[in-house]
Amino acid sequence: MLSARNQLVGKVKSVKLGAVMAQVIVQVGEFEVVAAITADSAKKMKLKKGDQVAAVIKATEVMIAKD
Fold first, then answer.
1. pTM across the whole model
2. Is the pLDDT of residue 3 over 90?
């Protein structure tokens, strides 16, 4: 359990491991959330396609842009 309110539950679509960082794409409904985490963390969590995860978003602001 976390106190963070901005938690989006979804399934891992892909994990791309680099030397230091990993890119994790999480499918949340019709949207994708892309996260950059350490490769060590991805390995420790044994993240793989299809895993159910929560994308926890910590931000002090949200910006909106319109064409």
1. 0.85
2. no
CA separation for the pair 48, 1 (Å, rounded): 22
Task: Quickly name the fold that domain 7-56 has.
Answer: OB fold (Dihydrolipoamide Acetyltransferase, E2P) (2.40.50)
DSSP per residue, 5-35: S-EEEEEEEEEEE-SSEEEEEEEETTEEEEE
C-beta separation of 53 from 26 below 8 A: yes
Q: Nearest Cα to 39, choosing from 24, 53, 55, 21?
A: 21
How far apart CA 46 and CA 29 sit, in angstroms, is 23
Higher per-residue confidence, 47 vs 64: 47
pLDDT, mean of residues 1-6 = 83
Q: Please calculate the CA angle 13-15-21 and round it to the nearest 5 degrees.
A: 145
